[in-house]
Write a structure and sequence with these properties.
The chain is of the alpha+beta class. The protein has six helices and 19 strands. A hairpin with a 4-residue loop joins strand 7 and strand 8. The longest helix is centred in the last third of the chain and has 24 residues.
Length: 339
């Protein structure tokens, strides 16, 4: 069984540091260019990755550039209004709508059924014909159903069938092609580069704090990663407008490496050792073994010559003054003295 080593790396991203901000101060379509995040290495079995944590400001508006335009017909002429982006309650929203209608010279009063949350538009100048769905990005905010077409007025009054929706984005979808894991999205009923979703569960001007407490991630499709692309969109795939307020995201990448050594893994090492052995053998053949010269052998004395030389080196020392009694002792201890 192959042993697996798990190696974790962290990649910290801040929108302020993005190499490219593709939608400028929206800060929701950014690219971060790194020299190398992931290389295709031989010992890599597979790689997992995703969001470890995120700090995202709720600096986006409920009524924004993706949902603030209404087209309508009055006296058989098409007009449009653009509601200023911002966060609203019913009173401030109704006031903003009335102001925009008045800009076109039309007095339309907006009221709300407080028990149902449904609003009504009552026109008092000319004949209100209908609200036009085509081009009206604010359609669902007002309480109309997408795909139903124009909504006709009755006696200069238009009342949408559903309640007013000023909640704004309820979920943030974070896309990253570099970290894509074959996710599916009902918005297009296909695979996408969606890597995570974050619920918008704090009030406006607060901060979303997300943490992957399970530590589980999907398996990445990419084997090589340099640039990291981050797109943050709402549930309708509209880019979020952070109004130039920066966010931070920390990505985790988990590399699973095999640590067993096979014959194939040792082959480069064995080849190198073979080359070293061949070199050493070649080197030893080139070196000459020193030979003993004959003339040196001739100068070496024989054993008899060495003995004779030793005897020649014996020096007879003068005998000390001895008396007659000592002479006998001397001859006794040195029997060869007189021979």
């Amino acid at each position: 069984m192959t042993d697996i080593l798990k190696e974790r790396r962290l990649i910290n991203l801040n929108s302020e540091d993005a190499t490219f901000k593709n939608n400028t101060t929206f800060l929701s379509n950014c690219i971060f260019s790194f020299p190398t995040i992931l290389k295709d290495e031989q010992d890599i079995v597979y790689v997992e990755g995703g969001i470890l944590n995120a700090q995202i400001p709720v600096s986006f508006y409920a009524v924004n550039f993706s949902n603030h335009i209404l087209f309508y017909s009055l006296n058989s002429t098409i007009f449009s209004i653009t509601v200023p982006v911002g966060n609203y309650n019913f009173n401030t929203f109704a006031s903003a709508l009335a102001t925009q209608f008045l800009t076109n010279g039309h007095t339309i009063v907006i009221t709300i059924n407080q028990s149902k949350g449904i609003i009504s538009f009552t026109n008092s100048t000319g004949t209100l014909n209908y609200f036009q769905e085509t081009g009206s990005t604010i359609w669902r905010v007002l309480g109309f159903e997408t795909g139903t077409g124009n909504f006709n007025a009755t006696a200069n009054v238009i009342t949408p069938p559903f309640l007013l929706n000023l909640l704004g984005p309820k979920k943030l979808k974070i896309f990253c092609e570099a970290f894509s894991v074959n996710s599916n999205d009902s918005k297009n009923y296909g695979t996408s580069s969606l890597i995570d979703t974050i619920s918008v569960d704090v009030q406006s001007y607060g901060q979303l704090n997300y943490s992957n407490i399970t530590g589980e991630y999907g398996r990445l499709r990419k084997k090589i990663i340099t640039d990291i692309d981050i797109s943050i969109q709402d549930e309708n795939n509209n880019f979020i407008n952070f109004n130039n307020t920066d966010w931070s995201i920390t990505l985790a990448i988990i590399i699973f490496r095999k640590i067993n050594i096979s014959n194939n893994d040792l082959q480069p090492l064995l080849s190198s050792l073979g080359e070293i052995t061949t070199f050493l053998k070649s080197r030893s053949k080139q070196e000459e073994v020193p030979m003993i010269k004959e003339d040196v052998l001739e100068d070496v004395p024989t054993e008899d010559e060495q003995q004779e030389d030793l005897e020649n080196k014996i020096v007879e020392e003068p005998l000390p003054n001895l008396n007659t009694e000592d002479l006998d002792l001397l001859l006794y201890e040195n029997p060869n003295f007189l021979s």
